[in-house]
# Entry
Amino acid sequence: MPCAVIHSPGEWRARYGPARGATTLTVGNFDGVHLGHQKILRSVLEHARATSTVAAAVTFDPLPLKVLRPAEAPPQICTLAQRLKRLDQAGLDAVLVLRFDLELSRYSPEDFIRILLNQLSLRAILVGENFRFGHRQLGDVALLTRLGRQHGFQVSVVPPVICRREVVSSTAIRAHIRAGRVSRAARLLGRPFVLTGHVRPGTGMGAKLVFPTLNLAPDQELLPAIGVYATETRLSSRTYRSATNVGVRPTFDGHSIAVESHLFDFSETLTAGPMEVHFWRRLRDERKFPSPAALRSQISRDLSRARRFFSRFSAAAPARSS
# Structure
């Protein structure tokens, strides 16, 4: 059964009330729902099933920095819809999405915990080592533990995940994506970085002079570094292997950044509809070529490299899954 998405403490209480029992939960932004988040979510689910409590996550929309210090807010790894999809896939019973505004930001740590106790019947909370909460992030794990002893709920601190000697974090993943290290970002995420959005009409120049592409109008602000990537592109219910250029098309004197994918074994003409691009491997930098013919020759080599990558990927898949 899909997890319930709830948008206020009052709605939560109406749905789950005291008669439905207590809650085991975690709280966070969960931007990316990366390997570290996934470890916490598994722990929440295991504890909830062992104690017959509701397994839940509390998250925020918009993310707090977007409200408090918008100039400092980093671009998000995933949209709210992507976040909720990943939280659902974790097997939770429910997600409470709190609208973050200035009023909520002024709640003291004690007041915030009181909401969880009174409205969500908090029984246990699992968080990471760097968890902060309440006004000006004055609450930390030490205060949370004291409040747990005072009010009778269990606090568990989940250690971070280390991947190839790097602590998994949303900050690290953003840095890898911005630098074009999408393979590294995928290892920390546990899956490829995905841009979601809709197909938008292009100029038609590429189809006439080089290779036909589908242009993505991305929902996210965070884009991989300018360059060419081996990708998979999803349209409705079907996924195609592809090569994607993120850049300004300098050969055609472009100026605005575009995300253009050439799909293998695809010949339809689309000008609208949902589209996702999954980034697997960076192939090269974008650069200006002396002519469309020279660009076409390079793209042919890019497509061959992408096909070889996916061929090796397919051959290795059984070994990875065994």
Remarks:
- The first strand starts at residue 4 and ends at 6.
- The longest helix spans residues 292-321.
- The domain at 192-321 is CATH 2.40.30.30 (Elongation Factor Tu (Ef-tu); domain 3).
